[in-house]
Amino acid sequence: MIPFLGPLDPFPPVEQARAEHGGLLAVGADLTPARLLDAYRRGIFPWGRVNDQPIWFSPDPRMVLFPSEFRLSRSLRRTLRAGPCEVRFDHDFAAVIAACSAAPRPGQDGTWICPAMEDAYIRMHELGWAHSVETWENGELVGGLYGLAIGRMFFGESMFARRRDASKIAFAHLVRYLLAHDFGLIDCQMRTEHLASLGAREIPRDDFVARLAELTRPPCPRERWVADGLDPAW
């Protein structure tokens, strides 16, 4: 049986996650900031809802990207150097998560980013934990991503693109920012070919959880991110 969590119930050990269901661990609880921070520090994340209850996952293996292993293609490098777009940090977080929610996903019927999920992560952004990296073109938001930063760990949640390479441009700027601020790892959650093409790879969950214990200390939020004048052309 999959555990059902009440508001005060702790998460079960991640070793109890059901591999045959993509790492399904538990159902229930809530999406309060305290619950979300506890989940991410343990290697757990919410993904969708059933009967209006959040579903929690901890897959094994875990897809991650070490910032130093980011794979910058020649075509993307040329795009970054050409500079047709402007990249902004934390400029319009709500618009980014709404765009991610509306973006079509191959093989998925609908979206896991429900209104309750949007509200929860907007609250995390207001508290300084959640951040967006946004690609703008002629004043229009054309791509971006969002996730949580805890200590020196970035937990990627979702991305979208309305123009060619728009999400990759945002991701390249994210990696550049994380390298400049000594982040050790990006959690990509589950394997996709798109993420693999950028240099992400799978590691055992035990290894991932052990790294979390180090990288999420200290857990204080960085508040609003700024671009710091980083060179986008690498």
Describe the protein's topology.
Elements: E1 4-5, E2 24-28, H1 33-41, E3 45-50, E4 53-57, E5 62-65, H2 74-82, E6 86-89, H3 93-102, H4 115-126, E7 130-137, E8 140-150, E9 153-161, H5 166-180, E10 185-189, H6 193-197, E11 201-203, H7 205-215
Parallel strand pairs: 1-2, 9-10
Antiparallel strand pairs: 2-4, 3-4, 5-10, 5-11, 6-7, 7-8, 8-9
What characteristics describe this protein?
single chain; 234 residues; alpha+beta; Alpha-Beta Plaits; Aminopeptidase; 7 helices
Number of helices: 7
- CATH first level of the largest domain: which class? Alpha Beta
Domain module tally: 2
Low-confidence runs = none
Gross morphology is globular
**CATH architecture group name of the largest domain:** 3-Layer(aba) Sandwich
Mean pLDDT: 92
> What is the third-level CATH name, the topology of the largest domain?
Aminopeptidase
* Biggest sheet, spatial arrangement of strands: 6-7-8-9-10-5-11
Helix content: 25-40%
Overall strand count: 11
Decide which structural class fits the backbone: alpha+beta
Name given to the CATH homologous superfamily of the largest domain: Leucyl/phenylalanyl-tRNA-protein transferase, C-terminal domain
Sheet with the most strands? 7 strands, mixed
* Cα separation of the termini: 49 Å
